[in-house]
Design a protein that fits this description.
The chain has a domain of about 80 residues. About 65% of the residues lie in helices and about 0% in strands. It is built from seven helices and no strands. Helix 6 packs antiparallel against helix 7.
Length: about 160
């Protein structure tokens, strides 16, 4: 049988496998400590830019690309939609709802043989959701004090 020759058949092979896995994990930890896993450190200016809430103007190119992908069903527009949505996933201060919507766009913004209504509707809905869910909240303005209307009252107690 094939099981007799596999590592699962011998307990000592399992121990060797565990040691091998521990060595692999140790290697990954050392690589991560050196920054070799592709994580780049951001300078303070870049961190400040990512902390700023996105505006409707910031999200407009992503919105337009998703809408174009939904309508045109072409690789170039769908690729642009996926890439712009992927940039949203990289922003650490966006909400989970925004990132979930961006992830759906990445999954669904691909050209298909038949561009049916359901696909178009899904992508158009997600494009609108990106604007609603990813846009930062504007600070509320304090209401201006009411100016007295009409001439001042004369006399009276």
């Amino acid at each position: 049988m094939a099981l007799k020759n596999s590592a699962m058949a011998h307990p000592s092979a399992l121990l060797n496998g565990k040691l091998c896995c521990h060595g692999l994990l140790l290697g990954l930890v050392l690589l991560a400590g050196n920054g070799a896993l592709g994580q780049t450190k951001l300078n303070s200016k870049q961190l400040e830019e990512q902390r700023e809430p996105l505006t409707k103007a910031d999200l407009k190119p992503t919105f337009d690309a998703v809408v174009e992908c939904a309508q045109q069903n072409q690789e170039a527009s769908c690729l642009a939609a996926r890439q712009l949505a992927d940039r949203l996933l990289d922003r650490p201060y966006l909400t989970a709802l925004c990132k979930d919507t961006a992830f759906v766009v990445i999954q669904k913004a691909k050209p298909v043989a038949v561009n049916n209504y359901d696909r178009k509707d899904l992508l158009l809905t997600k494009a609108n959701d990106l604007i609603q869910l990813c846009q930062g909240k504007e600070p509320e303005k304090a209401p201006a004090p009411a100016a007295p209307s009409g001439p001042p009252k004369k006399g009276g107690l």
